[in-house]
Specification:
It comes from Halanaerobium salsuginis. This protein is an alpha+beta fold. Helix content is about 25%, strand content about 30%. The protein starts with 20 loop residues before the first helix and ends with a helix.
Length: about 575
């Protein structure tokens, strides 16, 4: 493609609202433009990259036995009510009504639609297994869209759904998709890790995330330095070392703690260790249930673990009216003498015998708290966030943290949706059985942004060959007829051999062309200058490594093709 004919509106300056590198460079390199918050138009250069990645995904999905289809983005609410997710999914579900006042939603995912489709068509065990996938635009009403397409309200996703006879079949389908995902990201040249993950509002049991490691990742990857254990911080576990804190058997007593609202302030005021203070965090579920989470002062509540324990999708910090209803005070809340609330305690508080808790009165705490004596709770649970440096539960190694961007996730759904939709088949004995389902998603546009986060420098993007919008960027410099003629001949020759070429035939200065070439980031740049051409040479630069060298003129197309083979 010739740049003089192509719409590539590059920018010299970084847009003020672009916070992360991928967002900045996707705008500056002319890959996309913002329509409104969290919604973007993909320009020709950006759409080239998207199609490249989609083709890799299609090839590996087809190779794994999945079949492509396309389902509607506009979905009737009745299906979501049938799965009980219309309300449970939360405010991210974009809801609307048609002219007949019927409820619909814009699909953030397609479990309901695909299960409805299959339950009306599959009758016999002979029709299974089945794996269906699509590449389609999804919609989620993010409370705070940010980081460009890393956290948008409209995005492109590949989602696949498997249907099997039994658990063994589901395990095989899951492994096939897991392996296909590894091949996809390997082909893209991305550094990634697979980690144990939470299933979230989609539900199901086993789940793995594919995380591209990057400095601006929205997720924290917890991994062991001695074994292959890795998990999202939302799900990570570590060895919890408990000790009984020495203390007397004195009864609970109130003490004044003026203006000491934080754990650190309370510990300092009472001259105790932070791990003697019990943190009480008040939550409200989407069903209106009030929950008081107790955790040792040196830890934080893991809200995903807590939500999973409670069997809820949405969990929010309680509002001011809830504190008034319970006759307690924010910053001084405690589990003793509080109103009607479900108390959930972390394992970390189970050995506290001389602790400190809120007194449910302003500027007041209770000392000499004994967990076993003062609370009538049968069990404690793991609802804490692990810390870097703690011990791995599998081998005792040290846990470390890294930032990552989730680009794909696979789930074992089991019978969550087939039971809700009565998606059954007749087995060999003629008995009705529920299908076992799996779900498999890849963020298409998110992966593109993640690839940029991992492949850039101060000058622009450094595309991996598999994702590059064009493989070769030709830069003729100056107005010499010989240079222009050579550039046109090489452009035609390379294009005719199937090489993807971007020819900068604009009437621009050399500096502008070089800057745009680095910004756009094609893997190979070939410069044709009057002096080098007279010497029988073309200048070549590898964008990834920065390596520069020359090739002799004559049979250049074959030589460039060989260079591309070296990069593949």
């Amino acid at each position: 493609m010739k740049m003089s004919k192509m719409y590539i509106p590059t920018l010299k300056e970084t847009p003020a609202d672009a916070e992360v590198v991928s967002h900045q460079l996707m705008l500056r390199a002319g890959l996309m433009r913002k329509l409104t918050s969290g919604i973007y138009t993909y320009l020709p250069l950006g759409y080239n990259v998207i199609r490249k990645f989609e083709q890799i995904v299609r090839e590996e999905m087809n190779r794994a036995g999945a079949q492509e289809l396309l389902m509607p983005a506009l979905q009737p609410a009745d299906l979501w009510k049938e799965s009980k997710r219309f309300d449970d999914y939360g405010p991210e579900l974009m809801k609307l009504k048609d002219r007949h006042n019927r409820d619909f939603c814009l699909g953030p995912t397609h479990e309901e639609v695909v299960t409805d489709l299959v339950r009306d068509e599959i009758r016999s065990y002979k029709d299974l297994p089945l794996n269906l996938y699509q590449i389609q635009t999804k919609y989620r009403d993010e409370v705070r869209p940010r980081f460009g397409v890393l956290r948008g309200r409209e995005f492109i996703m590949k989602d696949a759904y498997s249907f099997d006879l039994d658990q063994a079949g589901l395990d095989r389908s899951y492994q096939a998709m897991y392996d296909a995902y590894c091949k996809i990201y390997d082909r893209c040249g991305l550094k990634y890790r697979t980690i144990l993950a939470d299933s979230g509002p989609i539900g199901g049991d086993d789940s793995h995330e594919f995380m591209v490691l990057a400095e601006v990742g929205e997720d924290t990857v917890v991994y062991c330095d001695s074994c292959d254990y890795a998990a999202n911080l939302e799900l990570a576990e570590s060895v919890l070392k408990l000790r009984e804190i020495d203390g007397s058997d004195e009864e609970l007593s109130a003490v004044a703690t003026p203006d000491a609202k934080t754990i650190a302030q309370v510990a300092e005021y009472l001259d105790v260790e932070i791990n003697q203070v019990v943190k009480s965090v008040l939550y409200e579920t989407q069903h209106g249930e009030l929950v008081l989470a107790l955790i040792r002062g040196d830890y934080e509540v893991n809200e995903v673990k807590l939500a999973n324990l409670l069997g809820v999708v949405n969990l929010e910090m309680a509002g001011d009216s809830v504190y008034e209803e319970l006759n307690t005070v924010k910053g001084f809340t405690g589990p003793v003498n509080i109103g009607e609330v479900k108390i959930v305690a972390d394992h970390s508080v189970s050995k506290i015998v001389d602790g400190v808790i809120g007194a449910n009165e302003i500027d007041q705490h209770l000392i000499h708290f004994n967990f076993a004596r003062d609370l009538d709770l049968e069990d404690t649970f793991d609802i804490r966030e692990v810390k870097a440096g703690e011990e791995c539960v599998h081998c005792g190694g040290e846990l470390k943290f890294a930032e990552g961007i989730e680009v794909g996730q696979v789930f074992k759904l089991g019978t969550k949706y087939s039971e809700a939709f009565e998606a059954t088949y007749l087995d060999e004995a003629g008995k009705s059985q529920l299908m076992k389902m799996g779900c498999y998603g890849i963020g298409i546009t998110r992966t593109i942004a993640a690839a940029i986060e991992q492949n850039h420098d101060e000058y622009g993007i450094k595309w991996p060959l598999a994702l590059a919008p064009y493989q070769v960027h030709l830069l003729p410099l100056g107005k010499s007829e010989d240079v222009i003629k050579k550039a046109e001949e090489l452009y035609q020759e390379l294009t005719s051999t199937g090489i993807e070429v971007l020819l900068d035939d604009r009437n621009e200065r050399a500096g502008v062309k070089f800057n745009d070439a680095d910004l756009i980031g094609c893997p190979i740049r070939v410069t044709i200058g009057g002096r080098s051409l007279a010497a029988g040479e073309l200048e070549v630069k590898y964008r990834q490594s920065g390596k520069e060298f020359t090739i002799s003129t004559g049979n250049e197309a074959t030589k460039i093709k060989d260079l591309l083979a070296e990069l593949a």
